Amino acid sequence: MDTPSDLWTARSGRDRDDGPVPVVIGCDVTTPVGTVLLVHGRNGAPDQPQIAEIAEAYLARGWRVVAPELPNSIALPASGPADRLTMDGLRRAAAEVMVWTRARWPDAPLALAGHSLGGFAIGHLAADLGDPHHVLGASPVLSGARLLAARVAMGPPAVAALEREVPLMRAGMEAEDAAPALARVAAPLGVITGAEDGIVPLADARAYFNAAPNGRFFGALPGQNHCPAGPDVAAMLGVALAALGA
Prior knowledge:
This is AB hydrolase-1 domain-containing protein. By secondary structure, the protein is of the alpha/beta class. It contains nine helices and eight strands.
């Protein structure tokens, strides 16, 4: 399957209650540098612009990209009810895909990249894995408490929307924190974010970066919000991946 310009869908991980997690896999070279597990956030999908931007940056540098379609996303109608999402559930689903990915390509370096709640997930995954090649967070969520505080800052309607749309996630947010896991990650870590992001404010993105002992790159682009994409983001990703040794 690992032929140039390969793009295909597989089923990963052990069987879940609603079946294995689908993954989209892309590779533009015969012999990849390594594999990156690219994790989307709440209501995300592999083909969304902010995820595709990261995937293209890795593909251009000769990496294989594994992008799961995680459960309970509005953008993935077959993934289950969006109101059943929890931070821990997203992390556990991503962990299943990580185990599957490592087993499928055991000799390839494995990097972790994630957007928003995907950043929260890979913080935990990196600590569990122990030896990722590097870690890249895009608008990464550090903790449920910080995510909730950002909603509070937006005003009561934003909090009410969160409670209505993801009640299970809201109920457990205060207990979720990736900082202790990130503190155990020795691999190079980078963060890119939008300077105008209201969901993960700049201070929170920097706190994610500072939580890890081996931060190598931090970049915030003016005019970009929670889902950074476009030529300037592509250029920043190129610099970030170079700094991370990718």
